[in-house]
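In response to reviewer comment 3 from the previous cycle, which asked for concrete evidence that the modeling workflow produces usable outputs, we include below a single protein chain processed end to end. The sequence was submitted unchanged, and the resulting structure tokens are shown without manual editing.
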Amino acid sequence: MWEDAQAPLPLDDRGLAYGDGLFETVLVRDGRPLLWEAHLARLARGCERLGFAMPEGLEALPAQAGVGLKVLKLIVTRGGGGRGYLAPETPSPRLRWQLSDFVPRPERWSGVRARHCALRLGIQPALAGLKHLNRLENVLARGEWSDPAIAEGLLCDSDGRLVEATCMNLVWRRGGRLETPDLSRCGVAGTLLAELGARHPIHRVRVGPEVLEEAEAVWLLNSVQGVWPLVRLDAADGRCLKRWSPGAVLGELPALAHPLLGYPAP
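The workflow returned the following structure tokens.
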């Protein structure tokens, strides 16, 4: 039996104490969740890997959004119990959810500026791809800049391999083909990236950040914001590493992605 999803979260909850849980952020348009099956599939993979049950009754939640554009946030934790880090033999997972109004930023669909982050992501294949609640690395990375002109920060792993942005995936075109970082060792396997990869070849590669300076176009993307073309890339110390013209980076990826989210194609 699932608890009331709006009930206060107890202080002994393992998601609160240890980040022992998962979350999803789903774009909902007029009560219809976008990329819903992909979100449910990722949540199911995460529950299976962490070893507790998938929530029931999720299908009824998006309809409560009503008219307009909303973001549905789902949080699933293992619940309480256990001794220290040792999880209970029979978990009692908790589901919490929230619907929030959302206004996209279409000016970013024309091009954004990003920077490399100094922070390096830890390599942990057991958690790679999951949208788990342990996001302190992303919090620290996002704290590296305050300039509102910089839309995102790009992250490498501890071996210096390119992984993702702080809250978005990364795709670029190099030599005429689309590429994205290999996420088998760390990073979040985004639902929009997965849907695009099912429709168009996107090659997963293990490369350093210098590859972006060789790219003809670079895009940042997630299932809420859509696709942001990159028009300027800075080093962590603020030096400009490369610029792209807006005409060069709009290209094929926004045209493929935005209809999936109900956004206008460029």
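The two ends are 46 Å apart (CA to CA). We consider this sufficient to address the reviewer's concern, and the full set will be provided in the supplementary archive.
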